[in-house]
Predict the 3D structure of the following.
Amino acid sequence: MSTDVTDEIRDILRSVLEAGPDIDDAGMSMECLAAWDSMAHISIILAVEQRFRVQLTPEEAMMADSLDQLRAVVESKR
Amino acid sequence: MTDQEFPTGDGIDWFDELVGTARALAGAPDYPASIRLGRRAAAAPDSVPGLRRLRVGILSNVTVDPWLPELQASLLRRHFIADFWVGDFGVVEPYLLGQGLPELDLLWVHFDGDTLAGDARHDPSPEIQELLVDRLAQVVRAAEATVPCSVVISTLAQGHRTLPTPLVDQGTAEWPAVRARLNGALRQEVGRASTVHVFDIERLVSEVGALAALDHRLAITSRSPWSLGFLPSLGDALADLASALFSPPRKCVVVDCDNTLWGGVLGEDGPQGVALGPDYPGSEYREFQFFLRRLRRSGFLLAINSKNNPEDVEDFIRSSPNMVLRPDDFAASRVNWDDKASNLRSIAAELNIGLDSIVFVDDSPVECAWVQRELPEVQVEAFPDNALGIYDFCAQIQGLERVSVTESDRLRTESIRADVHRRRLLADAPDMESFVRDLAIEVRITRQDTDDALRISQLTQRTNQFNLTTRRYSADEIRQWTQEGVVYSMAMRDRFSEYGTIGVAIAVPEQRTRWRIDTFLLSCRAFGRGVEAALLDAVLLDLEARGVEWVSAEWLATSKNQMTRDFFPSNHFEITFEGEAEARFGITLQNRPRPPHFPYEIERVGF
């Protein structure tokens, strides 16, 4: 299941951030990607919530600033 | 009409791709797919056959960016493609009163009511109410007088901050009642304008349901009040408005008779046997007739196109006590055994209207398909095959939207712009200074407020737009700066709300008489009021008092802070270096030109 979740979150991030295949999973973070700004972050959280039918608290949403963190928070809720 | 092929030069059928994707999304919401669609739409050529390009501007006191992909999808479904322009967060009046609006086809002014009233909504005194009524009225007047495109302004909807209260009468002094009065005042003001229209977001929210439409959490973290699930409804409503304003208007509704104006077949069931009357299912056909009558009263022509014996139909319409519509209501009638496409051609000829201004309603899928094939310009609407579906049919039928404006109004508007009428409107519209004065803004500028280091640090972390250098500092680093330089912070309040700390400047010495402004920022909540000039003036006054002679400053480009590029030069700094991504400035403090006065109270603390 973890791979599926990762795959889907990666797809969401690629859609929202226009990130090409050259960016690996470790590079999928707010810190590494200039396109991942506060506005993109809102879109990412909304998309993740819609896809996995979960609700993140404001604190969780703030922390979830990388592919890894997003996966962790989604899995903690499933 | 929509199924026509539009070959394009680059081998991509943009119409099919964009509209097809948008239609698919209507049935299966998928936000990332909407975002991709928005990006594809932005990459489309200027002219896509079948799509009308619309430059849509949005001014709001909430964050609208997350809405744009869904708005685009809705507009594409109605064969518009939008170029969106969004004003700076929270800034409305300055755009309406001065320069800064790009060329647009449609400007949407959206106030979130709870945000507009601020803290005052907990205690909306008569004075506050009057101020808010004035403010809305002035926005409408300014839009009418100065904005050269159609403007829609939202009604104030129930917001995320409308506290849950028991469902008893809350009294006329409570915020929900005040909000309703503000909406009434807004409608009245819009009623006097000709290019400004109401966008009834309040009704939309109550139709969808406030619980479903609002996302409290998103509102408080991102200042965007709507839930993701509400955005398609919002987009569709905007697309309806765009359609009413920009699509060539439909003029005539042509209806079948049997199983459309009434239930059953008149020729077989007889006048007593058809369903039309106070009880179900006849009640639903009667409602449909009332619906048509309302369209007629709003200016549509009605016509009949039916396969029947003409005498039967004529008698029934004239004499049935249950009929709502009468022979006079129909501008043309074709009751015969000819094919319905030929009848429509002859109706169009008789009424002297184009086939593209006709909406044809028939319950028979065969007739619908035939007409659509023969006459692709006609808007064909398949009437539901059971009475229960009539209500939804009426609610969803498109192309019948009318805003309260006619073609002659539109023409009149053009001439209004050129003549003295406009000067009168402009005289009524407030100027920027009186707008600021009416807000009764007070700013408090504090020097070296180490107690507030955390909030100051947060502002450096979060502020992206009005931030000259976008340097991010921790609270410890802020405290460090108070040792090595001077940290100024600015708090603001107005008649409505306390905003807390909204501005930061950090000045550091390079030499004894030469200092540098390391950081200068303003929170988006304080945009559009000119208070940044007061902060800069206070900093420069203070430095001058400390014996500083020359102050340098810089602008470091980010993807968000283009708005600040001219900030220092427009405040009399000279440009010492100018590049694409960076510029440097400097000012000699002695005898520098100072702003004449500020239309707000300034308190200085710790100077």
Q: What stands out?
A: The first strand of chain B starts at residue 52 and ends at 60.
